[in-house]
Structures are given as C-alpha cells and as structure tokens.
TrEMBL record:
<feature type="signal peptide">
    <location>
        <begin position="1"/>
        <end position="25"/>
    </location>
</feature>
<keyword id="KW-0812">Transmembrane</keyword>
<dbReference type="InterPro" id="IPR039426">
    <property type="entry name" value="TonB-dep_rcpt-like"/>
</dbReference>
<dbReference type="InterPro" id="IPR036942">
    <property type="entry name" value="Beta-barrel_TonB_sf"/>
</dbReference>
<dbReference type="InterPro" id="IPR000531">
    <property type="entry name" value="Beta-barrel_TonB"/>
</dbReference>
<keyword id="KW-0732">Signal</keyword>
<keyword id="KW-1134">Transmembrane beta strand</keyword>
<keyword id="KW-0472">Membrane</keyword>
<feature type="region of interest" description="Disordered">
    <location>
        <begin position="34"/>
        <end position="59"/>
    </location>
</feature>
<keyword id="KW-0798">TonB box</keyword>
<comment type="similarity">
    <text>Belongs to the TonB-dependent receptor family.</text>
</comment>
<dbReference type="InterPro" id="IPR012910">
    <property type="entry name" value="Plug_dom"/>
</dbReference>
<feature type="domain" description="TonB-dependent receptor plug">
    <location>
        <begin position="87"/>
        <end position="207"/>
    </location>
</feature>
<keyword id="KW-0998">Cell outer membrane</keyword>
<keyword id="KW-0675">Receptor</keyword>
<dbReference type="InterPro" id="IPR037066">
    <property type="entry name" value="Plug_dom_sf"/>
</dbReference>
<protein>
    <submittedName>
        <fullName>TonB-dependent receptor</fullName>
    </submittedName>
</protein>
Length: 834
C-alpha cells in the first residue's frame, strides 16, 4: 500500500534542537498510478483559463487537465501559491495519496485508508459514547483540531459532534472526512507543515487537501465486502461515480457511497455477572450514505464558473454499560420490559452538507477567484432502550426512547484570492505575488432534549440537555493575507507569507511564515521553514456541556462560562499559539534510491484541553448550579464516583519528530516489476508548563498529562513492497506496520486506590507489528478483483489489568491512538471501470 504512496512526496522537515530549519525534497521514483489533476485546488489561487485556439478545441479550464503521475510529477496546489508547481519542485513538503492507493487498502472509509498509508497520521484506538461516532484524524501527535482540512482548496466545515470523552482527542470538533464520498476523491495532498499564515487557524500540525474528481467521462463501480478476524464487524461498501462532458465547455462529475459497518464486541467479562453481557467496548454500528457533484463551465475564454456539493446521512449506534435487572426491582412494569437488564444505546442521526460556488479566471495578467462555501452538520443524539426511573417513581411511567441532545455547526466562508507573476528590470527572477481576503461566519447550537430526557433522574446512561445549557452562539472571522515568492539565486527559492485575522470573540492575531529551498544538484536539496501559528478555541469548546452517567458513577463537562465552572475558578478561553521549525535533507545516493530525512519541532502554547477537575460534593454542587438532574443518591457519591470539569488553557508543550522515507524500484523484465518502500515517523511531546486555575489548583493531573504527552505512539513504521506482473494481470502487495509504544495512567477500580483521583497505574501499551497483504487479478481491462487483509495475524492492543477496568469490561484502553482493537480485517474488493 505504501509503495503506491510515492516516497518522493515532499515531506515535512523541521529542526528540533536548532532554532532554524532546512527542508529538502526531490521527485519520487515511480508513479503508482495516473490520476487527473484538478483544474483548481487552492483557496488562494486558480488555474488560469486557457484560451481556445480553434472553435472545436475544448477549454482547459472546464475539462480535466492532462493525466499525470500521482507522485512527484503531479502538479500540486497545497503549500504553494504558484501555478504548475510539481511536487518534487515545491518549497513545501507535500505527500500525495491517489485514489488507487486509497482503494488498494481495502478499507471502506477514508480515515482508515489514510491511517494505513501515512506514518504521521493516527486515528483513535477505539471509542465510546458520542466520541466513537465521528471519524477524526491527527497529524504529528497533536489534537485533531490542529489539522486543517480543505476540499479543492476551500476550508471544509467541521462536525457538530464534539469528542467529549477522556483521551487525546477530547475537545476536538474535527472535520469528519468520511462524510465526503470516497468515490469522488481524485487524490489527497497532505502538507505536513505549519501553515496558519497561508490558510488560517487550525493549520498548526498540517493541512489535508482533498481533491475531488473532475473527469468529464467514464464510469467507475466498486464493491468492498469485509469481516473481522473475530467473525463480527461485517462491512459492506458500494462506490459509484462517473463524469460527463458539457458541450466541450465544461464537465460534471457525480458520485456516491453506501457504507455499512456492524458492531464489534471486544469487552471483557462484566465482574458483576461474570458474563459477556456488557458490550460497551467495540466498534459502533453505522450506516452512511453520501453523494457529491462537482462541475465547471467556461462562460468566456477567461472566466469559468464552478460549483460542488456534498451530502451525507449517517445512522450510528453505540452501546453504553449494561444495567443489572436489580436496577429495576422497584419498577415492576419495566422489570417486565427488561427482565434480563438492559444496555442503553446512544443513537446518532447525522445530516451533513456543503455547497461551494464561485468564479475564477484571468484579467490583466492576474489570476482571480471569488467563492462562497456554506456547510452545515446537524446531529440528533437519542437515548434508546433505557429508562428514567425518577420519572417513573413520580408519575408511574417512563419512556424507553428519548430525544436527548442535538447539535448544529454552521460555517459560511466567502473569499477573494488574487495572484500574479511579475518580471521586473531590477530583479533577474520572476516574483509571484498572491493575496486575498475572506469573511467567515461560524455558528454553533445546542438543542434541548425532550423533557423526559432531563427531568427527574434524566434518561439513564445518556441524559438529555436541559434548557439552561442549550443555546446558540456565533462569531465572525475576517482575514487578509499576502504571499510573495521568488528566487534569490538560480537554485535558491524563498517564500514569505503573512496573515492577519480578527475574531469577534477572541480578538486579533498575526501569523507569518518563511520558507526556503536550495537545490545543490538534481540529487541533493535542502529546504527549511520557520512559522508561527494560531488556533482559536472552537465555539463548542467555549459552550459545550454534557453529562455521562454510568451505573455507579457520573462525569460531566460544563461550559467554562457557566455558573458552576466560574464558581470553581474557570476563566475565558484564550487562543492556542505555536512556533514551528522544520528542516531536512533528501538524497539519491544511488540511481533510483530516494531517501529523505526530516525533523520538526512545534512549540504549542495555551493548549486547550479539559482541566480543573472537581470531585464529589464540589462536583455535585457545580452540576446542580448548572441545572443538571442527577440520579437518586448521587449527592452521597464519593469523589471518585462523581466528577466534572471544563475546557481551559491547560499547558504549553513541545512536540519533536523525525520523518524518514525511502523508495526503490526493481525491474524483473518479463517477470514483472516491484516497488519497495519504507516510511518512518518518530514523535514525542513533552510538557513544558502547566497552568493553575484562579484558585491556584493545577489544571491537570497525571492522567490528563499522559493524554497530551504519551497517548500517541512514539513511532510508526510502514515498509514493504508491491509486485506487478509484466502484463499487469497480477499484483501482490505486502506491507508491515509497526506501531510504537503508548503510555497511559489508569484509574484503579479495585484495591487500595479504588477510584483514586491522585494515584494511577502507569500502563505501557507495548509496540505492535501488523501485516497487510493483498492479491489483485485484472480479469479484463475493465474488471478487477482483490482479496486481502489488514492486520492478517490479528494483533490486538495490550490487555489492561483487571483492577483497572471499570466493571471489568474495557479490556483494551480506548483513550490512545495506537493499534485499533478490532483485530484482523479480511476483504474482497471488486471494481469495474468503463
């Protein structure tokens, strides 16, 4: 799989110990496949409109550009404001992942496909509650909020479903990339570089730019069927897309996905029953339908109209902890309904859409682009198969299904971008100037649950939102940027970028970036980048509040501005800020062997994570002040059973890492061809400073510190090769992935430190090796079939000690981003291209 990932992709380089950085890059040895490069990818500029030479000649703007390699020869748009820049010549490190590489992983979801291809990209080990129902990605061991996602160069809206559960992703409202149909993705450009000055807030760890298909012809159909090594988690995906020519003046491309995933169950035995009736731990069930359309049309020789739209609906269900039959002993009517007890189900119904429209072209030598993007994600979260026993005691009845919570995230971005290349008499090299301005409206809303979900003792397992914690909040963001690039010498490039932004809730910010590159020869180059970044607190981080209730415990997040939080030392959130340096070298020591070694350092200040946790009676009073209805008897729960916290600027951290890639092709003549590759990411985050609350108490404990510093793997290595027969009838791919160690601080649930908030068990999730393999047979020039497996020897994360599992159930620790808990996955993939 990684073979096709093209290791001459430009890789992000940074320096960790030196205050300056170099970066270098070169071409990749062999293209994995040919892909259509879109006409326009970048927010800041557009591809110029080509004038017709004859009446019959199709216009270049409206049709796909020439087929080119998906590797280093591909024209990239991420990380540069220039036109026609190839990946191997770019001043910024860019990885290119083609559609063929994505489908070659055998995964039906984009997130899991990327995780098998990019060492610097990680996904959560597992999940529970609502956090398991949104697919998030992380770059460089930072929170998903620090990665900016673009679609065709335009900022993508984020999910409304905040990851509220404990772990390294807590507090994130990332872009859910799986709501974009995989069938519509041409390729993905991953800029592993701090790029806030170029693209704005969120681009601290890097940028993922998803390029939609723009082919004006053809039809592609694909079916993917798979199951886990444990015999559960059946998955089925169907993917269809095709393009049409609009009178040689434009194109339209339409595609859609249908993906279904069954539950997996990886729970240990429940120590209350010594059975496996509690199915908390595992993959949620979900069904997702998504469609997209992308179109462009030449209005004149110099003006093109373009538009795209995506829509996705997802239904997902996640199990909560099992409730014993004895919990309903006082309620005979409901004991009859649940004679064997019950497990509440958290149900998500999500609707996500985005509309993009704009015009681009050339005027007096300037390339211009005017666009508007409107996106919205709406989540209705229900509690199913549960009760409100307090309501039953008061009225003699209770529903078993509740409309509990609802969230809405809206983003509307309008932008104007200009660029032009100047040549002057006083400077021997061309100067590329780009600039622009944007206005963005953001809104976030929390809806009230049904009265039965929040009155009395609330819906068990997943309480509804009460009116006091519901509301709608919004802000405006205005920005302007300037980017200038030129050569200082024939082989020495320089790029300067600056950006100013104004947020109506958190004020002003200024960011800058300096990048340079020097090519000593076609086989050796260096480059470096120094930049500062900015990430504004999300509206969800500022205003979200919710409570999670288990059989004998409850924990919640309250808004930093709420009465309960303010009474315990909370203060208004500040933006995160960063300083980044990247640098490295790339060499071709022998012909066709391409090696890159890159380092980076990111200093991140005022990191936003939950902090200031309060316990027991103090937590009870804070939750009561915020109008939460707690289960009967909870006023007497201990500090280990009842806790709450809020989002705060908790710490300053330093992240240092190294990327190494190597690629080498081998030609066996009539016996075919093989591509060999290796890619390594080493990553470490250290705590540099911890913040205290206004009462003087530290905002983090040892468990929270571990989420920030050691929950992401210290290393991730991908290596292997792909062989193809001489006539391309057969292809065999084998790759190894090594996931490095993660370290967690586990709560004690038995023993002398039971439910302790100050004593934890240090737990190492030791390194794991997995093997991915596939065999492809091209039945005809149009039809192909692949049988394969990921993690074919069914490796699992390290098993958590019995005394550190709540109720004995979570046998693997979910709050890390190492190896997934599903075990092996085996699939059959059949595709046709017409």
């Amino acid at each position: 799989m990684l073979t096709q990932l093209s290791l001459r992709h430009l890789t992000l380089l940074g320096t960790s110990l030196l205050g300056s950085a170099f970066v270098l890059m070169t071409d990749e040895s062999r293209a994995a496949t040919t892909q259509s490069v879109p006409v326009q990818h970048k927010q800041a500029h557009t591809t110029p409109v080509a004038k017709k030479t004859t009446k019959a000649a199709p216009r270049q703007v409206a049709r796909p550009t020439l087929e080119v390699s998906g590797g280093s020869e591909a024209v990239v748009v991420t990380g540069t404001r220039e036109f026609g820049k190839k990946a191997r010549d770019s001043i910024a490190p860019v990885d290119i992942v083609t559609n063929r590489q994505l489908t070659g992983t055998g995964q039906p979801t984009l997130r899991d496909s990327l995780a098998l291809l990019l060492p610097s990209l990680t996904v959560p080990t597992g999940g529970f509650d609502a956090g398991a129902l949104t697919d998030s990605i992380s770059l460089r061991g930072l929170n998903p909020n620090e990665t900016l996602v673009l679609v065709d160069g335009k900022r993508r809206h984020t999910t409304a479903n905040i990851y509220a559960d404990a772990g390294p992703s807590q507090g994130s409202t990332p872009v859910d990339i799986d709501m974009i149909p995989m069938s519509m993705i041409d390729h993905i450009e991953v800029l592993r570089d701090g790029a806030s000055a170029q693209y704005g807030s969120d681009a601290i760890a890097g940028v993922v730019n998803i390029i939609l298909k723009k082919q004006n012809h053809g039809l592609t159909m694909r079916s993917n069927t798979g199951i886990t090594s444990e015999g559960d988690g059946f998955q089925q995906g169907v993917f269809i897309d095709g393009g049409a020519n609009l009178n040689n003046r434009g194109f339209v491309h339409i595609g859609g996905d249908f993906v279904h995933q069954d539950h997996t169950v990886r729970s240990g035995a429940d120590n209350r029953t010594n059975t496996y009736v509690n199915q908390l731990l595992g993959q949620p069930e979900q069904t997702r339908e998504s469609v997209a359309i992308n179109a462009g049309y030449d209005i004149t020789d110099n003006v093109q109209a373009y538009a795209s739209a995506t829509y996705a609906h997802r239904h997902a269900e996640s199990y909560q902890n099992y409730r014993l039959p004895s919990s309903l002993a006082k309620y005979p009517g409901y004991s009859a309904i649940y004679p064997y007890g019950y497990a509440p189900i958290e149900e998500l119904n999500e609707n996500d859409y985005e509309l993009t429209a704009g015009f681009r072209g050339t005027l007096a030598g300037w390339h211009w682009d005017v666009s508007s993007v409107f996106g919205r994600d709406y989540d209705a979260v229900n509690a199913q198969s549960t009760t409100n026993v307090g309501l039953y005691a008061a009225t003699g009845q209770t529903p078993t299904s509740f409309a509990a919570q609802a969230y809405n995230d809206t983003q509307w971005t309008n932008s104007v971008d200009l660029s032009r290349k100047f040549r002057t008499s006083f400077w021997p090299y061309a100067i590329n100037v780009a600039g622009g301005a944007s206005y963005r409206y953001e809104a976030y809303a929390i809806g009230t649950g049904s009265p039965a979900s929040y009155t009395y003792s609330s819906s068990d397992g997943f309480p509804g939102t009460n009116p006091a914690n519901a509301g709608k909040w919004s802000r405006d963001v205005a920005a302007g940027y300037l980017d200038i690039s030129t050569n200082l010498m024939k082989h020495w490039q320089l790029d300067l970028a600056g950006r100013v932004e104004h947020y109506t809730d958190v004020g002003n910010t200024k960011t800058g970036k300096v990048s340079t590159r020097y090519d000593f020869s076609p086989r050796f180059a260096i480059r470096g980048t120094f930049s500062n970044g900015f990430h504004a607190p999300t509206l969800a981080q500022e205003h979200y509040s919710a409570l999670s209730v288990s059989p004998t415990a409850a924990s919640g997040i309250i808004a930093a501005s709420s009465a309960g939080a303010l009474a315990n030392g909370a203060s208004a959130l500040k933006p995160e800020s960063s300083t980044s340096a990247e640098g490295g070298i790339i060499v071709e020591p022998i012909k066709k062997l391409h090696v890159t070694v890159d380092v980076y350092q990111i200093d991140l200040r005022d990191r936003i994570m939950p902090g200031g946790t309060i316990y027991g009676s103090q937590a009870y009073q804070a939750l009561q002040a915020d109008n939460y209805n707690l289960p009967p008897g909870s006023g007497n729960w201990t500090g280990s059973q009842l806790a709450t916290h809020w989002f705060a600027n908790v710490a300053n951290t330093r992240t240092q890492g190294l990327d190494l890639t190597a690629n080498y092709p081998t030609d066996f003549g009539r016996y075919g061809h093989a591509d060999w590759d290796v890619a390594i990411n080493l990553n470490r985050t250290r705590l540099r400073h911890q913040t205290n609350s206004m009462t003087g108490a530290p905002l983090l404990n040892a468990q929270n510190i571990a989420y920030i510093t050691t929950a992401y793997p210290r290393s991730k290595i991908i290596f292997g090769g792909t062989w193809r027969s001489a006539h391309n009838k057969w292809a065999v791919s084998v790759h190894e992935i090594r996931y490095g160690e993660t370290t967690s601080q586990l709560t004690y649930y038995t023993g002398p430190y039971t439910y302790s908030t100050s004593h934890f068990l240090q737990f190492q999730n030791v390194p794991k090796w997995t093997t991915n393999a596939s065999v492809t047979y091209n039945i005809t020039p149009k039809w192909s079939a692949t049988i394969g497996g990921n993690n074919i020897f069914a490796k699992f994360p390290s098993v958590v000690p019995e005394g550190n599992r709540y109720l004995g159930v979570p046998k693997y620790y979910m709050s890390t981003s190492q190896l997934g808990m599903n075990g092996g996955y085996y699939y059959l993939d059949v595709s046709a291209r017409f």
